[in-house]
Amino acid sequence: MIQKNDLLENGRKLPLMEEFYTIQGEGANMGTAAYFIRIGGCDVGCHWCDTKPSWDATHFPPVSADEIADRAAAFPAKTVVVTGGEPSIYPLDYFTKKLKSLGIKTMVETSGAHNLSGEWDWICLSPKKFSPPRPGIHKRAHELKMVIQSEADLEWAEQNARFVNEECLLYLQPEWSVSEKIMPWLTEFVMKNPRWRMSLQSHKYMRIP
Questions:
Q1: For the chain, which domains are there?
Q2: Deepest in the core among 2, 11, 86, 108, taking most CB within 10 A?
Q3: Do the Cβ atoms of 36 and 150 come closer than 8 Å?
């Protein structure tokens, strides 16, 4: 169980799993440089998750949000992507305010399973059936990224697309372990429904973090 009072200090500390500077591999910002900050802790539990070690936040000692932000500011892109785990578990107002004060563009990747705090320039919403998004997050999303493992997931994708704003970009992303198998019918679906775009985990093809 996440010991919020001990770890967070109202967002001044975060259970940091890892941080690294790399190329964004997915979605609307694919191919752009960014500093990734992966926060430990997730209660969604996707069986195909490729970062299951991030689920238990108690494995990651709390780190000063100020220190994380200062390290991110040292890199040229001046863009931070906060991911997890599930970052919406934590109060992120303090952290994003600090990032903004350093001239850093703030992005987040979230399932929306918890109320999202913080000031964000870009919100990538990736809903999961196991723990649906909280009300209101769809309208805030700049990007809806649906992970697809079977054709049944397309219905879930369409359900979520009904709630986003008109400017929100819609992406279907094949789950990596079945991507080659499902690509033919997923490609056909996008061609028949061109409001959707394909998102590939290009960083895995490029063999970068």
A1: 4-206 (3.20.20.70)
A2: 86
A3: no
